[in-house]
Amino acid sequence: MAQTLLVLSGGHPYEEGPFAEFLDAVAGLLPGDWQVVHYVHPEAEERVAAGAAKSADAVLFYDMPGYTFADGTVKTAAPSDAFKAALESRFLSGHGAVMMHHAIAGWAEWPQWSEWVGGRFLYQPGMVRGEAKLDSGYRHDVDYTAELVSDHPVLDDIPRTFEVNDELYLCEVFEDDVRPLIRARHDYVAENFYSAAHAVAGRMFDNSDWPHPPGSNLVAWIKQVHAAQVIYCQFGDGPHTYANPVVRQIIANALEWTSR
After folding, report:
1. Whole-model pTM?
2. Tens of pLDDT, residues 109-134
3. Fold topology of 3-258
4. What are phi and psi of 33, to 5 degrees?
């Protein structure tokens, strides 16, 4: 009998064909027979609220729900109580999840989400854990070396260092509350990133008047959530990263580990 990999996406643009190929490749790396079930928001939220996460063997969040971007502004919303309860139930039961890339920005009106992820990407200046923070930074198409900084089954058969071309974030990472897995050899300072708030306002690739402090170079970590483990991987901006065989193996390892 096939096991189920539940994938949630939506709220952030991505190239659907290459991402579907990525999912098929990852499922093929998992032991046994796996079926990919993929829902896009708003249906994804409805399906989880109705029990899809409870019945899934593994869950991959590649979504950024709770936002509406229009005319240089951003509006935010929280998920339904049923959605919240469904995820809480999954984690209490000891079944984890994997969160990729822009999932760290999801559900700006639901602080519990960032606690589960282990960090927060801000599209606007806001409060994080009771402290005022500037909006986060982004930088596309960065060539960098990723380095393993832990020994863990998620990193089995992964080279100690490997090359990646991907988008990086200068965002809030709760380093004291997570187990580091992978760091990027990149200088996480404001001049190497662009302001997310400027981008929302129509000023793409602009870091003027944005004195963001230096940030964490963690790009993958484990967060304990109730009886479960959540794994966040910053990899995943587009086709170049989807096709990276090392990234595919890391995500497969993470899904297999959190499905136990």
Report:
1. 0.97
2. 999 999 999 999 999 999 999 999 99
3. Rossmann fold (3.40.50)
4. -105, 125
